Amino acid sequence: MDEIDPGEENVNFVLAQESSELFHVLSSQSPAVIMDLCQMMPSGVGWNVDYLALSSSSAELTELIKAMLEYLRVANPAECRSFLQSMCMLCENIPMRLEARLMSVAGYANHVCDSSRPSAANEELLSPPSEQQLIKRPRIDHWEQYIAAVKSLLLKRWERLSDGLVKEVQLENVWVGLRMASRVRDRPDQTPGPADRGSRTPEPDGDFGSLESKVTLETFLQGCTGKVTVVIGQAGSGKTLLMSCLGQQWARGLGPIPSSYLFILLEFRQLNLLSGPLSLSELLFRHYLPPNGGDDQKRAIVDYLLSNPEQSCWVLDGYDEFYSKLTKQEVKQEPLDPENPLPVADLISGLLNRQLLPGCTVLITCRVRDVLDLEGMSDKVGQLLGWDYHEIKEYVDNFFGVKGDSANRALGVQAVDLLLSSRHLLAMSYLPALCDICCVCLKHLLLEDKKGGPKEQSREEDRGSETRPKATEKELKGVQIAGGRAGGSEGIKTDGTNGRAHLPPTLIQIPSTLTQVYLTVLIAFLRRDHDRGKIDKTTKHPKRLIALSQYRSELCKLSQLAWRGLEESKILFLKEDIPQDVLEFSVRTGLFSQVEVRLEDGMLVNAYCFTHLTIQEFLAAIRIMTSSDVSDMQLKKRFSLKTRWTTKSDQRTVFTDSLHLYVCGLASQHCTPALVQLAGASGGARVQSWVQKRQGLVLKLLNNLCHSNTLTGPKILELCHCVQESQDRQLAREVVALRPILELRNIRLLPNDIDALAFVVNSVGDNGRTGLDIGACTMELECLDVLPRCQYINYLSFRSRKYGDKFAERLSSILPEFTTLRKLEFCGATLTATGAASLASALEKCPDITEINLSDNNLKDEGIKHVADIFTKLPSLVSVMVSRNSSSLEAVDYLIGKMSSCSNIQHIHADAMKEVTVSFSQTSDVKSRSEPTISLLNQKWNKPEMQKVANSLACCPALSVLDLSGGQWDVEILKTLTQFLPKFNVTNKIVLNDSCSSVEGLVVLTALLSDCPAAVELNIRLQSSPDPVQVSIMFSGEREKSADEASKTLCLSCCGLLHTDLVRVWKSLGTSCDLTVLDLSRNCLGNKGLRKLLDVLPQLRNIQEINASNNGFSMEGVVMLAGALCSCNSLREIDISDGGREKVILKFCSDKSDDKQQLKMFRINNSSLLPSDITLLCRRLAQCHSHLELDLSHSSMKDEAIENLLKVIPKMVSLQRLNFSNSTFSTAGALILVSCLTVSQRARSVELRPQSECFIHFDRVKAEEASCRLTHFSLDSDNMERLIQTLLQGPQFSNLDLSSNQLKDEGVKRLMDSLPRLKITSFVNLSNNSLTQQGLLDVASALCTCDDVSGVEVSLGAEKRCLIWFRQYGGCEKTLSVRESSLEREHLVRIAEIVFNCPSLTKLEFKNNSLQSEWIEDFVKALHIGQRGCSVSIEESWIRAEKAISLVRCCLELSSNIQTIRVHRSTLHLSLMKSTGLTSDSNFADPAPSVATEKIGLLNCELQGNHLSLMRSIIQRCPLLTELDFSHNTLGVEGAECLCSLLPSLPKLTSLSIVSKEMCETVVETLSEALLQSLTVQSLNLSGHMISDTAAENMTRMFPCLQSLNLSHCVWSVAGGLQLVKALGQCVHLEVLCLDGVDLGESSRVSLAEALRNIHSIRSLKLNNIVTEASSVLDLLAAMEGLTRMEEIELECWQMADSGVEELTRLLPIWTELRKISLSKNVISDTSGDKLLAALISCSHLEELYLCGNRLGDLTAARMALVLPAMTHITVLDISENTVGYEGSVSLSKAIMCMKNLTRIQLTSVGTSELCAVAASLAHCPLIQDVGLGWNNCGDEVALELARVLPLCPQLTRIDLECNSVSVLGVEALVRALQSCPALQLIRLWRNKVSSSEAQRLSLRDSRLNFSST
Fold first, then answer.
1. Residues contacting 980, CB < 8 A, separation 6+
2. Mean pLDDT of all residues in the chain?
């Protein structure tokens, strides 16, 4: 390579130009380098090198450097070049740009002019090392050669790209919006909720900052060298074209990138093709530009690049198209090895993270959403702004060739008009790429119109398109799209000016949706293809469909390619990816663009992509809607709303996320014809049906989204776009139906967004109202011009600091257009008084506005006045908020003054001039309008300001509340206020919280009670930290009311008052002694203050309550209070806690008379009472002559204190009750308290339980009977003797409860020994006392030793129950119940002895005692029965099947006294009676003794047919057997045959019962044949069997002998049933007939009626659920007229209604012996029920009445109150599931009170929850056992009433309260009552208001509470 002479003048010029930078570089070098450079300088110029070596001060070095550079300015060029070469070799940290320029100008050392060669002496010094020259110079040459090649490459690239451009690209005309510094956080996609509305508007952070300002792209890129710069923009904004333009400018030495830099332009779409790892050099040379030279050149270029990284500029275009994701290195990593092969993503990340080529310039482009990946890596971010309408117009003019011929110019004018009149075309055109597509569309529309004219437009074209007039001025301004450039505010003239010819208005059809725009664009591209023949004019399809039909095949393949690309995230297609015909067609029509790409091997090939990404997405949407290859599931997967909030977790995609919009648009019915053409060749009905089905699926998906309540604001907006595309107004209505307020936050709003909102909002019409809440959304003023399209907005809110006076001014111009607007919010903005004036002026024209919120602005006083001036002009106003507006007292005073002129102001609220709100009343009637209120909080006024405000307040109309809290005023300001206060017209109260801080101020305010007659209450609380000081003054509301008639309250709590301060308070009150309530709590009065208080009591003649709590009183003060209670007649209650140190409350009554019958209460709780305290207190209380209750609960007392109490009790003759609840005392102390029963004859009951309720009740005179409950103490056998002695000295006891102690067997034995001497009438409870089986036997022995004991119940299991029951008179029958006690043989033997020794013990019950069969047999054998006999029941789980039979057989063989033996399920029942003896039959050779048993039963015990053979021998030995029952087993044929074989051996058998569990015809047939031979059977029960016709015939022959027949639930044929029913007429002796649930046909029912007429002996008739026809009901009832002996009748589910009841009431007087009647579920009305009850009066023996499931109400209940008291035998009453109301429940309670024999009442779901009266009436039912009150929604009041009556119902065993509203309060009361009800076994409480944890806790307290469903 020939060397180039750099030129002598050139080197001096460069030195002069770069001198300042050279000085900076040399100044940073070491002194040694400077010395070397000085030595190279020519001699004779005065360089003192030696001196320099000795002195190295910075000042001297600086001077030397300046001198060298000054010399070189005029030095010989050869010397200059030599110096520069040496400098480059020796100096460090020379900027690469400077070094390259210096080396270039210096040249080689040997290239010097002869004339300027230096002397030989200096030549050696001036020549730098030749080895460094040979390395550095060629490297720079290769670098420069490569840069030149790159420039050539970029120029060619630009030449190719710029070919065909409509508009010249100039960087200085491209605008960029600067973005804020990256501060995006990975935030969830959520819209702020309603709770955020009142707060300050948050700054946007959802779309990567906000636009701060805008500059040109050229300016933006200035200073980008050495940095990472990001340019973002939407798809189609021109990023790729601009980067190529930037490269072209660099190649020409222009632009912001220095030409000396290496410009590397890489496209991510091409990088996607690189799959393998590669090094930096491979990326550069193989895939960017291979150098012309060999490896040496490559090495030199790479070495230079690595040595000088800052001299390279890497432009990385289209990161949004990159398949991989770039990641930021959070921790600083080591540099990467550039020679090490890495994946492409790692190489790019290395560049961005400065791990590769640190200091290089990086410029990367992407879309907005992808910028998050670059967070923290970029130094600068700018967003390409869209075109404004001037640029759009310019482009359209250029496209149509405005400067060309007149025809094109006319088209251009029309095109501009059309574009500006179409919202969708306009919205698309602000992106350059889409603007070009719009021009193609416009050209197509105009040419079509020019060819055919409007008359050729088909009806199909009219659908989905709109004929547009030209745009108005305001709409033209709307072209300034958010994101576009501001400044073009003047509109384009629409009258043909600006060089355009006047044209007649066009009627061209403009597509009305984005989808239809793209459909038109597609047709326009198809029209470009001129290779096809002429269109067939005979086709019936419209023009727009002809092209689609003509190119159906190509479009099908092209849409398939687009869909595949969408699925694979692929936008670049190689030639082999595309069918050849499709490729040619797509390029020909312009649907494809061609690009050059390098493959993996570096080869350049052609690739193709769609003209724009949206075109690909639209074609993919067509594929979805026309091809069955795309399944419904794939569609659903692709169909989702996109949010504009971007987060790092978002899935990256190369596409624009418009697919769902196009799919929704294609789902419109307007697109159906086009889809049908594209979907099938024929377009027949089948294809159309498929297309419509696919459209329906899309609409269904949209509908589901409309009903979703989880969509965020951006997604709601996207949903609006989708619905608008679908053009489905019903879907639009669904959107707003679920969302009355549409909330939009932190997004950029465009005019087309507003248009989409308008489509949705307007769908509701006049019938609905919608709100729009816009917060922190970026939107230009032009968006407001479009906003009035939302016609039915009633709520409009704007929140952002971006919105100021200009925004408000523009908003004001459109506000009157919102005729439905009711609420306006303009908060958190930058509004001033100017903007407020604009808004106020506009709001005057909105008379229906109700709410205005202008908070958090900068209105100041002037702005608030503007708003206040329109109050009177807005009659519908409800509230105005102007908070946080930098206002002062002047604004508040102005608002107060407005109250006089604006009478509907209801409330003014001002908090420290920050929170300012005005509320208004909407009541037109002034009289009914409530009085207004004013709140002026935290106002730090001085005296003049107080006077000013007070004067204003005095002029106000009547106020309800005046709140002046937070003032913190001194005494003088308070006095000023009190002077004005009587002038205030306040009717309710004045609040002065935190406005008075001293006792002096307190005294000033206290005088108001006497100075201001209307003041009735004063509350002051000075010490309430951390809460503010509380002061309030209440008023009577009647200012004319005299002072002595008003009751007044004075509360001076927490004020630090001393006893000396009381004098000042009394003095301030003056003569006002009419206080009713005085609160002096939480002060420092002490005993002295208490004395002063008690001294003033006589003067407080109207006092009702005094609170003196927390005043440091001692026990001395307590005794003083006790004396006051005795001496002061009006003092009725004193409540003290903690010995007087805590609570002290005195309550008075209005009656001043000395009424001794009135109860007084002295309560001292939570105190530790010493013996001396008790003595003093009780002696003082003994002086009380009124009835007295002494409450010592929650206190602690030692035994000595209790003894002192007992000593004084006899003297306390007025004492009625002692309360020790939850007090602490020992077991010995409890025994001392029990002795109260002997100390005082008035003691009626003692109830003691540690840490629970403890009472001693006294009668007024001597108690006749007492009760004692001493539970949960540590009472053991040692204490027992003392207790017994006390009890023996006491009166007669009704009950003794010693449960839950530690008596054990020994203690119980002692009690049992003394039991005969104790006088007890009801029960003794010894449960939970750790008894063993020995203790059980001792308790059971009481049945022998004590005649009054009537029963013993013992359970040693989990229940731990032990009860002894008494009767007042001896000789009664006795019972013994033993459960879960693990008895053994010897225990049973001992019980048998007890039975022998106690002839009265007639009932034994054993349940789950783990008894073995042998033990039971021994027990039966050992039993000796007296004359009374005995019944025994033994339940064990093993008593079933064969074991049950074996046990029965053994019992019968062992005991001859068994009269009845029966096994029911797993329980053996024995009835024993002393046998008179039987003799054996002498006819048998081996006679066996006969058994006297009369009844044998084996019921539901898993008996099988083969088991009966085991009973054969024993049954045959029962000649007296009269009853045999094998019901509810599985006998089968074998069992039936066995039974038949036994019947002949039972000569006295009269009753046979075999209720079936199976359906077998043979069983009844076999039995019927055998029964024909048995003439003794009179009672037959075959319920549930299947009866064949043969069996029916056999049975009818035995009917005449029967007295009882039960065929309920039997199954038979029609003929068989008719035969049986007819035969009933022969049963002239029949007394019992049961046919429940049988199927009777019409003939059978007629026969039954005839049979009933023939049978007059019937006593029991059960015909439940056999008839529903009205005629049959009446016939059957009429047939019963002759049944005069009726005792029991059941007619459930007859549906007899009123007519049937009427017939029945005619019969009731005949049935005088009736005992039971059941008429449930008979649709009996309330009126008929009344008549029925009236007829029942004649049934005086009635015992059971069932009327559930009818329609009875209050009328029937009222009749019950009259009838039931006369029916004294009633034991069961069931009226569940009726509709009784409150009045009916009261009537029912009156009836219950008279039913003394009632044992069971069922009131489940009776229709009312008010059953307190019913619960109370149960106290009058001593025999009640079962009460059902479930499913009535009863509350605690019913439970509390039940708890009260429970002790009065000693036989109550079960209460049903399930499904009510009983809370823990009610259940707690029931638990307490259960302590007195040992007989109660269960309370059902399922489904009440008790949590599961509380239910578990309460169940542990008493296991009889059942909260489960079973």
1. 947, 950, 951, 953, 954
2. 84
